[in-house]
Amino acid sequence: MDALFLLIPLSVVLILAIGVVFWWSVASGQYEDLEGPAERILTDDEHLAP
Amino acid sequence: MFGVSGKRAAGTFAAPVAADARTGVCFHCATPNPPAARWHATIRGEDRVFCCAGCLAVAQAIDAAGLDAFYTARTAPAPRPAPNDADLWTRYDAAPADWSRARSDHAREVSLLVEGLTCGACVWLIERGVGRRRGVLEARVNFAMRRATVVFDPDRIRLSEILGEVAALGYRAYPYDPRQREISARREAKALLARTAVAWLAMMQVMMLALPGYVSDDGVAPSHQRLLDWASLVLTLPVIGYCAWPFFRGAWRDLRILHLGMDVPVAIGLAAAFVASALATLRGGGAVYYDSVTMFVALILAARYLETTARQRAGAAIERVARHLPATAERCPRWPIARETDVVAAAALEPGDVILIRPGASVPADGAIVDGDSYVEEAFVTGESRPIARRVGDRVLAGSLNRDRALVVQVEAAGEATRLAAIVRLTERAASARPRVAHIADRAAGWFVGALLLLALITALVWSQADPARMLAITFALLVVSCPCALSLATPAAIAAATGALARRQVVLARPDALEALSHVTHVVFDKTGTLTHGRTAIENVTTLGEFDRAHVLAIAAALEAFSEHPLAHAFRPFDTGTVIGEGCTVVAGHGVAGSIEGQLWRIGRAEFVGALAGASEAQLNLALRKVSPRATPVFLGNEAGLAAVFACTDTPRANARRTIDRLVAQGVEPLLFSGDREAVATALGATLGIASVRGDMTPEDKRAAIAAMQARGAVVAMVGDGVNDAPALAQAQVSLSLASATPLAQWTADVVVLADTLSPIALILDKARRTRRVMYENLGWATLYNLIAIPAAALGFVTPLAAAIGMSASSLVVVLNALRLARGERDREMRRGHHAIVKG
Fold it and tell me: Tell me, what's the ipTM?
């Protein structure tokens, strides 16, 4: 059970890191247009090239 | 009308569009082609047919630019191209600082509102089409917001060329200046999303760490429990310090003005639970409530986030209002000696100025026509969908659209003095006088908090005498167990669940407390044109009067009407054979069209206009008029030999209007019809749809007064409207609804916006509102019962802090789960039927 003393702090650090990454993704405006990118990926240049 | 073209047939294109000449629809915009289509082009090596020269030009431009892959990737038809506004665009070049922002020495950024985006392929087309132009550094389209951001080098490309490129691709773009308010609202929404997500992340993790304490039979080893507590403390810190920050700020603001708002109990509950937990952790033992704290914050933030996003989407309509008033005007300083013009800001116009309004341009100020005649579309100001003929001496209103020919207008009122501005102010005044259910709830919570704080104080004092060692634990237990989570969550959770459920059905609640008002609604008032009807005319009946047969008179009528842009003329478009060709046709504004066909002189239009050519007596005209039902608009056709036919043109009711009315009646709600149209037309429509109470010939003020009178008799009125003429009535009604096709101002005024262009969600909204109210009462009842038992028990020392935390969490969970019932269920026939109607409509 001693592994918990390593794993739980590790999980806390991981969660904090995820939180920071998510905060950055929101701040950089990635959630402002949730429809466009989903469509854009389907209409990539390679797929559209005649 | 603006912006409706792109919405046509939404939902009918689930798969990529297989536009095909054989199907008889335009390859570009998928509207039916005229019988003998005259526009052909070779696109991607195949011959394609188009409905008009505009679509043809756009398709050729797309093909020539090598962007033809658009046609295989799109999932909805393209919009019909807008008329060319090259004159208007060049004016934006004159003052680049007004429309674009400097990014660097050689880069400026412009924000564009784009009309006509229908699917992802449009995004691709515009980004590639504009992006490949020399001098364009970056082009990004935000599909959700219908916006584009273009970064360009002003030395190499002009703004007008960018707008021209968008237009060449078949869309219409306007530069706009994002207002400060919008920027700050966007920043707030972003922060709220980040706070909500961080709180949920922390909540899930803290719940996991709290689980051992709940499930282990013989308790967790003390060393492990301390580890779990410390980990929870670290994870709860950002929740308290970052996520819950708005609650603390709000509570501080409330306390400074000695007001016990909803944020106060939330903040005190959070602070008490967190401080107690943190002290216990630091001391190395005792009860902790991190799970309760994080769950509480996560749930409340989620509710607020749902409300905010719904409100913002509806609020975007405000911006579209500004677009209808042009930013610039063309002034003729030397009128009437010379017609040359200079461009001035519309806001700088003064009464007495003479301005030129080109065809296709919006009117910048109220005024009287001094030269020219034209059809003017006032739908934006008066809600009247038909263009109205205006000639010298007539007034034109700011915000209306000049359709046909150039007008010279002497300004009577500009800026804040215009009728449009007056309507906006009237709306604002009525809106600010609305009863605010939210305030009542807030006051009730204030009393609850005040009583609770007093009780906590008394408890602490009593126990400090009776048993000082237990004082702290019992006071905390009291604050935690009664932490008004259940009470303060009861309403927002139910509203959030209902808001989310309605949003999935294309209904946006612009005002969160609209649900409360909706649940009490006793009367629903409908506007006619554009709400109960489509706002599009169709030929209902043809009565032939001469020797010509039905098909022949329709062909002649269509040939003549092909020269007119009047909405009645659109009813004749499907009958244009292309074989009967009119020659020398002239449009006589307000009367009709005259022209010669097969060597004969013909007229179509008003009775007296046609009668004058046909030599028909008044008795003959009246006899013919009797063939037209009172709810229809008569259109006469005749030549020098006499009358040939009379057409009855009607605006068709929406396919689901009757069923919606029936369902409202079944719910015990009385439907009413208030119309600005003729009494006879309104009554006939009311009879068709089963509406007993019908009133016609009403001005916007009449509608508002009628609703006020009903309210005085105790009615709770919901108003469904679409035009600016409905705006005062929409504001007067306790709750207002508008459809997707409504004018921006109506949408802005409305509490509830139905994003689908269909009436069917209206009965659903009322039903949902009533169920929401029931759930809210259940939740409040449960919370009251819980608090009535838990608070005295805690005050008397029967509740340990741990039991208090579990009790509080369980109580909150009951409330939330009950509220979530509103989000689930009844995704049944109601929904499918509604969706079906959208596809058909």
Answer: 0.82
